[in-house]
Design goal:
Elements: H1 4-29, H2 38-41, H3 48-51, H4 59-80, H5 84-102, E1 103-104, E2 107-108, E3 110-114, H6 118-131, H7 140-145, H8 148-152, H9 154-160
Antiparallel strand pairs: 1-2, 2-3
Helix pairs in contact: 1-4, 1-6, 4-5, 5-6
């Protein structure tokens, strides 16, 4: 039998662990003057044709900015437990893109990862954050969801639900 307190504690720890993953990545990107996605995307294999479009001199700085600050915003959202549903969806999207970028079919990153790697596990954990309303567990989503102004706006209510 599952103890509800233990499940809530585990969800909180998973949310904070995922926050750490994104914030740590952001710390190497946001505060690095020379961060660019170009080096990473130039080494893609299975989906190289898709990712090569993002390495051009015009688009790469935009994508680099979005990746760095996306990591930061997702990490802060998960840490505070605010808009967890929204940040988790963006996180899932990023994890699937990273999984694709690491793919050398049928392996991911190296021969020890057959079809799956940590990016898929992270995406599943983020999916659990959405399904379990993890932002309501020692987070700001629960507080915001109870506000009358949030209840009146369907999109805000959905985002904090």
């Amino acid at each position: 039998m599952t103890d509800k307190t233990s499940v809530r504690s585990l969800l909180l720890l998973l949310r904070l662990a995922m926050a750490w993953v994104f914030l740590y990545a952001a710390s190497h990107q946001v505060f690095a003057a020379d961060f660019s996605v170009t080096g990473f995307l130039d080494h893609t294999k299975t989906f190289h044709g898709l990712f090569a479009h993002f390495t051009g001199p015009v688009i790469a700085p935009v994508i680099s900015f979005c990746v760095a600050y996306g990591h930061l915003l997702i990490g802060l959202s998960l840490l505070a437990g605010l808009l967890v549903r929204v940040s988790s969806m963006f996180g899932i999207g990023l994890m699937i893109l990273y999984w694709m970028a690491h793919m050398d079919f049928p392996y991911v990153s190296n021969p020890n990862n057959f079809l799956l790697d940590e990016h898929i596990v992270y995406a599943l954990v983020l999916g659990l954050m959405i399904a379990a309303h993890a932002g309501h567990i020692v987070g700001l989503d629960g507080w915001f969801a109870r506000r009358a102004s949030v209840k009146e706006h369907p999109l805000l209510h959905w985002a904090t639900a």
